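ok trying this again, last paste got cut off
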Amino acid sequence: MLLRLTRVFGIALAAGLAILLAPPPPASAATVYLSIMWIHCNDQSEPFSDEIRLRVAGAQVGSWDDVDGGETHWYYSSSFTRPLNIPFSGGTTVNVHELDGSDLGLIGWINISEGEVDQGERQQTADQYDGSYTLRYLVTSSPI
């Protein structure tokens, strides 16, 4: 009987130590928030005014019509929604599109990392294709 108890105790002790000494699971990336302050047209995509649409993770987050070269459009003038407090973790991409009839033409994109969190306003330019737009944005650890 004592031998059996010693064996059960030994197994339980070994199992407990294995749990205690096992490495912790990897921490999941924290949620951070992207807020786009403004978009500036450096170079139009079309000879006439552009109709700009911003998409993050496939969802439209901003919309401006009649955008011409040299103009800056603030978040509060977006006709779709205000592109503020867009949650993401790890990293995300903001795609800049030009609406042409019912087709969205990709002008370019910017990649944003959660490593930019709480570093103040930042800006990048999306100009991989036809046209050039600069976006000014914030990445914050809590909604603004």
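PB: full thing came through this time. Residues 2-6, 8-20, 22-27 have pLDDT under 50 and may be disordered.
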